Amino acid sequence: MSAAMDTESTYSGYSHYSGHSKKAHRQGRDRHKSPRSKDGSRSEKSVTIQTPPAEPLLGNDASRAEDGQDDNWGETTTAITGTSEHSISQEDIARISKDLEDSVGLDCRRYLGLTVAAVLGLLVFLTPIAFILLPQILWRDDLEPCGTVCEGLFISVAFKLLILLIGTWALFFRQPKADIPRVFVFRALLLVLIFLFVFSYWLFYGVRILDSKDTNYQGIVQYAVSLVDALLFIHYLAIVLLELRQLQPMFTVKVVRSTDGESRYYSLGHLSIQRAALVVLENYYRDFTVYNPALLTASKSRAAKHMAGLKVYNVDGPGNNASGQSRAMIAAAARRRDSSHNELYYEEADQERRVKKRRARLVVAVEEAFTHIKRLQAEEQQKAPGEMMDPREAAQAIFPSMARALQKYLRTTRQQQYHSMESILQHLSFCITNNMTPKAFLERYLNPGPTLQYDRDRWFSKQWTLVSEEAVTSGLQDGIVFVLKCLDFSLVVNVKKIPFIKLSEEFIDPKSHKFVLRLQSETSV
Amino acid sequence: PVITTLSSFISFSSQQRIEIHKLRQGDNLILGFSIGGGIDQDPTQNPFSEDKTDKGIYVTRVTEGGPAEVAGLQIGDKIMQVNGWDMTMVTHDQARKRLTKRNEEVVRLLVTRQSLQKAVQQSMMS
């Protein structure tokens, strides 16, 4: 705010653009500004300047250049505009290249991780089979014959491998549902563990068995069986680490949306911050009402009125006392007797009344419209073939009678962008097909629903950034705060530990419930 | 001159001995008052007691012109003794029985009465 005041006071000369001192002013300004434009870039056509967005002064330079009567404006002015449609600024190029890098980087990393895991898995799966087959291939004649015991072991190896395969498929083969910033610590740990394990087994096998051409085939097969057993145990470890550990709730998490204060509580177990952020986001799409920027305009206009009320003039001297100015502003605003609370109260009461009236009209119109439709039973369908309509046509037939009331209602509650006519017709035919009552048809429009209910391009929230002071792979602790930002708003997440509950027992004998009358009698003697 | 008066109420209890001569009405001997209280009753509902855990016997009503009024019994009195029998730890029914013994014509009660006296003080005279 003080910066706006600064620019206003410094450039106050420019707001009164009279003819006489223009040339001198402009040349002075250009001399002041040209070093900056050189710093920007020589090849690009424009430079961006950090000005407060509400300040129109500097942005009108181009138009002012045309208005002015300076003949040399072509040479002396540097075009200090933001980005126009025909030029690409330095900033744009930087942003595009960063986007490319980011998307390529993330995809590469994700696919790299997947391929590593897949290759490792395949290797691990084929290892026991290799252990069993290699002696047969390489020195078959030297091997001791090994009868039923070995065959039993072969069967057990086969079934254990099958179980391992099914278990791995069930646990790991899933569509990745999110891109997360850092690697999954537990998954990486497990991969490393498996790799080391299999590596050590191969080492042992290579040294002790292949080199020395061990002839005890039963021992070799048992060695392979022990490997498969150990792999099954690692699979169990994976289940416990990745799935079971975070099931028990340990933390309560409060999520507040920054624009309108809507909040929810969730229970989480032991998770890392990035996984907790994922859970919160998945629940956000289901639980929070959709973000509607049109509902925020009222508070923004009130805030603007507060700011525009007071101006600060520095009469005492040229000192740039910014903090003193802002303190003076706040004190003056507190003392000023404004009636904005009154306005707010009456405005809200009015709005509520309007919405209720429109809602009543809408409900009546829809109920009436629904009475015009009757479902034909199977026998009746043969009798009256001429007038039969399918749901879509039926919807189109009754839609005009309620369209106006519905549109007016959506306008009043500022939801009109979220529902196109096509979507309303679709919903109407859906409701007609499923025998829904008018109230069931209307529930979608009367209350703002969760984000998932609406069309994807009205979501305003697809790309999320996790802002956190702690490392995002560290676990949740009591008191951690992290923020999930998207372009228009952010979700502030506050983590609290579920308190340690001391539960004790008390036994009350059912026979011990006894009562007594409280009397107050009066006797005359 | 401004005189400020401060008046305070001081309460103290005094013990009185009251002798009531029973009145014969038909077959009964009546005393002309009603009692409330007793160890089997609820002491918190007693309007006359100062201490709401007091389970003693209190006089709740005095009939006009009856023997109790003539003898000087007042409403709100706590009966401590009847003819020497203690009445502070009796049930309501026991109290009634002690007061309505058929062969007694005179009952001598020891009662405690809370009386209020107004004390007027002149605090400032200027």
TrEMBL record, chain A:
Biased composition (Polar residues): 74-86
Intracellular or extracellular location(s): Cell membrane
Any Gene Ontology CC annotation: plasma membrane
Positions of region (Disordered): 1-86
Sequence ranges of Basic and acidic residues compositional bias: 36-45
Membrane-traversing stretches: 111-133, 153-172, 184-204, 224-244
Compositionally biased residues, Basic residues: 19-35
Domain of life the protein comes from: Eukaryota
UniProt KW Membrane keyword: yes
Main location as per UniProt: membrane
Membrane topology: Multi-pass membrane protein
Keywords of the record: Cell membrane, Membrane, Transmembrane, Transmembrane helix
Family: Belongs to the Vang family.
Name the record gives this protein: VANG1 protein
Protein species of origin: Piaya cayana
Gene label: Vangl1
UniProtKB/TrEMBL annotation, chain B:
Subcellular location: Cell membrane; Cytoplasm; Nucleus
Protein name per Swiss-Prot or TrEMBL: Tax1-binding protein 3
Topology in membrane: Peripheral membrane protein
Source domain of life: Eukaryota
GO CC annotation, single: postsynaptic density
Domain PDZ: 17-114
PANTHER family hit by this protein: DISCS LARGE, PDZ DOMAIN-CONTAINING PROTEIN
A single MF term (Gene Ontology): protein kinase binding
Entry keyword annotation includes Nucleus: yes
Keywords in alphabetical order: Acetylation, Cell membrane, Cytoplasm, Membrane, Nucleus, Phosphoprotein, Wnt signaling pathway
Designated gene of the protein: Tax1bp3
GO BP: cell-cell adhesion; establishment or maintenance of epithelial cell apical/basal polarity; neurotransmitter receptor transport postsynaptic membrane to endosome; neurotransmitter receptor transport, endosome to postsynaptic membrane; receptor clustering; regulation of signal transduction; Wnt signaling pathway
